[in-house]
Write a structure and sequence with these properties.
3 domains; 2-enoyl-CoA Hydratase, Chain A, domain 1; OB fold (Dihydrolipoamide Acetyltransferase, E2P)
């Protein structure tokens, strides 16, 4: 009897121990699984570089990169940042993409995250900086109160959304912002990696991307580097706020010179190539379609039509409006459109003025400029003698596009064709003279 009771007690005790072991094991597995879910886990990491000037082409590349990472089942999107800034609209586009993606986002500031780069960095869930890197100096240009207020609000709201101190971000934008012990009034805040860590703005300092991920408990099962295609790299170049206006200016200048110079040559090719580069870049960046480029070509066609009509009228005005509209529609924002148009025409005017004043020093430009005095001894006539040309017949010395030069019995005069292109060596008649305007018509067209 006693032995039976002892066996029962041992059996109950063993059962209790077994139950306790099962409960403890389940609890430990739960904790291990929870820790694995939160941090130390193998993950598919996609690396997205945000480097160089931030413009429309970069925003388009980031959009494609985020979409690729989502479609290929990435767990973590590591955004490698090294930028001095760029356009606000491009930074806002990238910020929205990073906030909306379901992927875990980690910003690794490799060099500098200045100006618009600040917004991209804090839009990520985790921010790690490399030793020697910096973040800040985010005052917009132009530093107008309206722009500063809107830009500051975007940074503060993004900081709050990611659980960071909005005052630190405000001090990077607004020099009127003062934080005791951090930045004085009248100065913009820029932080080194160690100072940013000290103030709690970032989550860590690491020398490499792998160390940055490890510090967050992420162990990559694979790392995929997202690289821009050749077309995306070209789009970044063509949509740069510095390059885009220059492409337009070069395009207009080349076409202007080609109209003045006889024949089609290098300047016509330069003009068409520059304009094609502008529209191809903006189309590749996703800010324009083929229809907008065709609108620009249509406008050019109207201007060419106007060139063969003596009076400036509906074709000239319509062509200019169509070209300006296409440039406006191809730009990412109205501000970018106006900047491109104003800089392009400003550069064009300045270039023409310089060539008029100094072009005589270069043989190439003597074809564009009148380097000789238009004297009677040189075969030219004065304004008082132009009326005498009415009804006379002469031969074109230069092509009329519609303006050019005609020789009348050894006397040269600048004339305008009545309504079309006339090549050199063609016999023409003067049909009317109005002031200094001599209008001629080809003898062939009169038959």
């Amino acid at each position: 009897m006693i032995q039976r009771r002892m066996r029962r007690r041992r059996w109950r005790r063993n059962v209790a121990v077994l139950i306790a072991l099962v409960v403890c094991s389940a609890f430990l597995f739960y904790l291990a699984g929870d820790a694995l879910a939160e941090g130390d886990r193998p993950a598919s990491v996609f690396v997205l570089p945000v480097e160089g000037t931030m413009e429309a082409g970069l925003a388009s590349f980031v959009r494609r990169g985020v979409q690729q990472a989502e479609e290929q089942g990435a767990d973590v999107l590591l955004v490698r940042i090294s930028t001095l800034g760029g356009t606000i609209d491009s930074a806002l586009d990238i910020r929205d993409l990073l906030l909306e993606t379901p992927l875990d986002t980690v910003a690794f500031i490799k060099g500098r995250a200045w100006s618009a780069g600040v917004l991209v960095a804090i839009a990520c869930e985790q921010v790690i900086m490399a030793p020697g890197s910096s973040i800040g100096a985010a005052e917009p240009r132009p530093a107008e109160e309206k722009i500063i207020s809107a830009w500051r609000a975007e940074l503060e709201e993004t900081a709050i959304h990611r659980g960071r101190d909005p005052e630190l971000l405000a001090a990077m934008v607004d020099s009127d912002m003062e934080i005791e012990g951090v930045v004085e009034e009248g100065k913009l805040l820029t932080l080194t990696a160690s100072r940013a860590m000290e103030l709690g703005l970032i989550d860590g300092i690491s020398s490499t991307e792998m160390q940055a991920l490890a510090s967050l408990g992420i162990h990559p099962a694979e790392m995929v580097s997202i690289q821009p295609t050749t077309l995306e790299m070209f789009a970044r170049f063509a949509t740069s706020p510095f390059v885009a206006p220059l492409l337009l200016a070069a395009g207009f200048f080349g076409l202007l010179v080609e109209v003045v110079m006889p024949g089609f040559g290098v300047f016509g090719l330069l003009g068409l190539s520059s304009l094609a580069a502008y529209f191809v870049g903006h189309i590749a960046a996703g800010y324009a379609g083929l229809s907008i480029a065709l609108l620009f070509v249509f406008g050019m066609g109207m201007l060419v039509t106007e060139a063969f009509i003596p009076e400036f009228g509906v074709f000239g005005v319509g062509g200019m409006l169509a070209m300006m509209a296409s440039i406006y529609l191809a730009s990412p924002t109205p501000v970018a459109a106006m900047r491109s148009i104003l800089v392009a025409f400003g550069t064009l005017v300045a270039t023409v003025v310089i060539l008029i004043r100094m072009g005589h020093r270069f043989p190439l430009w003597r074809r564009l400029l009148l380097s000789e005095a238009l004297t009677t001894a040189g075969g030219y006539v004065s304004q008082s003698s132009l009326k005498e040309l009415e009804g006379q017949r002469g031969v074109t010395i230069t092509p009329l596009r519609p303006a050019g030069t005609v020789e009348f019995d050894g006397i040269r005069a600048d004339v305008v064709s009545e309504g079309g292109f006339i090549s050199s060596g063609v016999v023409v008649d003067v049909i009317r003279v109005a002031g200094r305007r001599v209008v001629v018509r080809s003898v062939v067209d009169q038959k």
